[in-house]
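Hey, resending since the last one bounced:
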Amino acid sequence: MKHIFDWKHQPLVQKFLFLFFIGALLSGCVQDDDIEIKGNWADTYSVTYVISNDIWSESGTDWGSSNTYTYDKVIHDYDNDTKKLVYQEPANASYNANKFGRIQWVKVDKNLFYFCMEVYGKDSYDEAFSDPATSDASSPESGGCGSFPWTKMTRQ
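The structure tokens again:
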């Protein structure tokens, strides 16, 4: 019985093209868009940020001292539709080292967004992702992030 696609009798070039086509289809199905807040930013507290699909890096000066720091939070997951990301603090973080958290953001335009650390200090990704805490983005300049205003970010 002859099969519709008899793999053993196909020329090598056809096999390669078939596998290349399948690979291209599959990579298109799982590839994510870039995080929409990707880039270099600064907040109103003189902290600078570099945000990529994988890292939320922040550099500044510790409050109450002249010690400078750079912390690279690992971004485990993000969703541009819900405007949320789940991160893990680095081992050298002053607070919540190696713990997980969740950030909610509100993008105003390409040069301005606000963020809220909605959840922090969790022991696992699942705890941070599924925590029921919410934030109110209706007026980020005046409040809605717990009892605080959201952090304003300006593109650098």
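The helical segments are 12-30, 125-130.

Sorry for the duplicate.
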